[in-house]
Amino acid sequence: MHEILVKFQKHRIIPVVAIHEAKDAEPLADALIDGGLPCAEITFRTDAAEEAIRIMAQRSNIQVGAGTVLKVDQVKAAVDAGATFMVSPGFNPKVVEYCVENKILITPGISNPTDIEMALEYNLEVLKFFPAEAFGGLNTLKMMSAPYGMVQFIPTGGINTGNLQEYLKFSKVLAIGGSWMVKSDLISEKNFIEISRLTREAVTIASQV
């Protein structure tokens, strides 16, 4: 397994971040680290994403990657900024193929068996189940993943402190993705103390599984 995926398995939670001002990247990194979760998926949902990745990637104490990667150009920009992993909401063959050919870690989004089998053609071992809760949650994942014992998943979408343990107890779940501890309004309000608190709470809950 890729060394970054091993880290995800250890952390159990990947914060999914939409950041609107790049200057908030540094204190956000501090807040996540203080909360015990030294990793972040910075999504390409805002104009500040690339610069935020660049700022975080200069640090040696946090793993930073790019999310909502929809085009090969975004992969290139993210890698140039220092991102070490890519996450996409769906399965885009062009994006996946580029990442695989260039040995860039990618966990593409899947929501059905066809997506999984497309991923298997690229020898991917960890996939993002998205949007998890909207597509039936854990029950759907259990049924859908049954024929694919070689694959693990990172469910994302609708997951929070109320259901994260349920997901993490499933053996095919490597980690979960979530944004509740890094909501955009908390970042915009510079409420990094609350982000640290929510992160610490999430880490504590996950550690009890």
How large is the count of helical segments? 10
What is the N-to-C succession of helices and strands? HEHEHEHEHEHEHEHEHH
Count of individual beta strands: 8
How many angstroms does the end-to-end distance come to? 22 Å
| Main sheet: strand order | 3-2-1-8
Helical content stands at 40-55%
How big a fraction of the residues is strand? 15-25%
CATH class: Alpha Beta
CATH topology: TIM Barrel
- What is the number of domains? 1
Mean pLDDT: 98
CATH architecture: Alpha-Beta Barrel
Morphology:
globular
Rg on CA atoms, Å: 16 Å
Class based on secondary structure composition and strand pairing: alpha/beta
Q: Stretches where pLDDT falls below 50 for ≥5 residues?
A: none
Outline the biggest β-sheet: 4 strands, parallel
**The CATH fourth-level homologous superfamily:** Aldolase class I
What does this structure look like?
It is a single chain. Helix content is 43%, strand content 16%. The chain has one domain: TIM Barrel (Alpha-Beta Barrel), CATH 3.20.20. The chain contains ten helices and eight strands. By secondary structure, it is an alpha/beta fold. The strands form two sheets. The protein has a four-stranded parallel sheet. Strands 4-5-6-7 form a four-stranded parallel sheet, covered by helices on one side. It has helices spanning 3-11, 25-34, 49-57, 72-81, 93-101, 113-120, 137-145, 164-168, 184-188, 192-207; strands at residues 13-17, 39-43, 63-67, 86-88, 106-110, 126-129, 152-155, 176-178. It is globular and about 45 Å long. The two termini are 22 Å apart.
